[in-house]
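Record type: ASSEMBLY
Status: queued
Input:
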Amino acid sequence: MAEQVRVIVCGFGRVGREFARLVHEKSGLLRAAYGLEPSIVGVGELNGSLHSPDGIDVVETADAFEREGGFTSHPNLVADWQGLDLVRSASADTLIETTPTDIRTGEPALSHIREALGRGIHVVSANKGPFIRAYRELTALAREKNLNLKISAAAAAALPTIDVAETCLAGAEILKVEGVLNGTTNFILSRMRTNGQSYEEALAEAQALGIAETDPTLDVEGFDTANKLALIANVCMGADLTPDDLERTGIAGISLGEVQGASAEGKIMRLVGVAKRDESGRVSARVAPELLPPDHPLAGVEGAEKGITYTSDTMDRVTVVGGKSDPRGAAAALLKDLINIYRHSSS
Amino acid sequence: MAEQVRVIVCGFGRVGREFARLVHEKSGLLRAAYGLEPSIVGVGELNGSLHSPDGIDVVETADAFEREGGFTSHPNLVADWQGLDLVRSASADTLIETTPTDIRTGEPALSHIREALGRGIHVVSANKGPFIRAYRELTALAREKNLNLKISAAAAAALPTIDVAETCLAGAEILKVEGVLNGTTNFILSRMRTNGQSYEEALAEAQALGIAETDPTLDVEGFDTANKLALIANVCMGADLTPDDLERTGIAGISLGEVQGASAEGKIMRLVGVAKRDESGRVSARVAPELLPPDHPLAGVEGAEKGITYTSDTMDRVTVVGGKSDPRGAAAALLKDLINIYRHSSS
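Status: finished
Output:
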């Protein structure tokens, strides 16, 4: 007998829609391999939400949303509900949170997640904001309610980071985390090194390819790396960092001479986030362009790829590299977290 | 309240002793972070076993075993019990299996594991043999009894392999596994390439460093890689392979010219195990020296290190590299599996 799981999706942007499609596409595998039958009973959006206790035809819904730019004529539309109303009212088991993040306030995701946990609903989030602002509060609330709060997609989409530390390195003490966590900056530095492009040229190419945003500040100033690193250090090292606690140096305007000078010395420049536990047990973290020797496990993380290295007391150095970084990769990370919530260890 | 877990260790070689010491060393962390209080209530060895329902002082026992070459004067000694008698008689929750493997018969580990599962005892194994011989039987038995059977340490010690696929890539379909799974052969090929040593010189150095065995056949003929690959493909791709099903080419006697010729073309020769699912769904696998292009994620796995690359439908390519490969690393992998058995998903 498969376990029925009622899912609410807040935010129906590219990641939310890709998640909905993936749940449909993988329904056979979910039943056969994991004994799960997820049904999407609600979709929360700014201009009205969908709600149907019997489940929503999500593939047709996603197609229509793209065609019409919204839920204009959907049979399950509740026009005056936003995401929070849906989370307050629907009977559900898990919230999938994919709304756009306001990194300063964490909203509206923070309210969605608080409400969900308060109502006994597990949370899987692609959103960093709430955890950057209220990590301790939310994890304490989840623990108190004996609920899961999973954030793989927020930490680095399909590159496994937090679950590697939690599961694959269970029992080991993480002493250091080093991460190439931002694909845009790694693409720019890679292009400068291999093609001799200037920073501006490489950035323009990244923008043309859809890798960089029109306003690249979040990426190139190191904010995105700092956000991800703070999340990972908090979960995997028991730290209590906000991104503001990190020393942060970005790569904006870096000169070709600096990048190629590193190459001439046999080093490879990458934007690396490093969190380290010192002897007193305190975790400190920084983001900066680093000159990696060629035998460093992150030296080979090329182009828009990402990677993370954990150094631990008993397992030494373990590095994970890769993972699809588009909306489908983020959706796959959400689905993985959903599966792992309902998975029992003795199976 | 911490959960009491009664553990039997079969095999008190370097890995078994290191596991016992690690459980002691990590007892505070196990209680605080995982709510676990493991107590080693039995240690099985060929020339007599230890048994004490109240727990054995494992650190003193390990020290004495090394001093005296056995359990000669231990207060908990049952002189006429071998491992199987212990598994048959002791009240226990989990068996840690670390006896030397006979790869052809899987014994004595196979009997220990059958007996344990039959009695309702979870199994964590550093032993490949039983799973190469009786993978389907043992997993079916574990499933029937609702027990865990975990083999991280058997697959690649502290390099996470199976748990990455099972947990971090949950929901993704693994289409291909590529692994540099044997440290000895990778050391030899690395030395030949970087130092211009002959095969014989590099092998002798590996033997002098304790990386290679006096009889290196298992490693250099690719048997060890084939064994690990078959295990990983069976668990992660639902295959049903024995190592005999694999095409296997080792590196014994490979010429310096071949290795350096690859280098001259910008390629790096490594012994790689590859398991692939074809369009009909069938998984085939082979082990052979491969010429990796420099941008292949396993190209940078240097010296005695190991690595594995999973290619999946939704997460693309994810590579894991590193992990301590000595007895402490294997013990850490055993401990991780033990923790993950008793970990509840909603915590």
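Annotation: The first strand of chain A starts at residue 3 and ends at 10.
Annotation: The longest helix of chain A spans residues 129-145.
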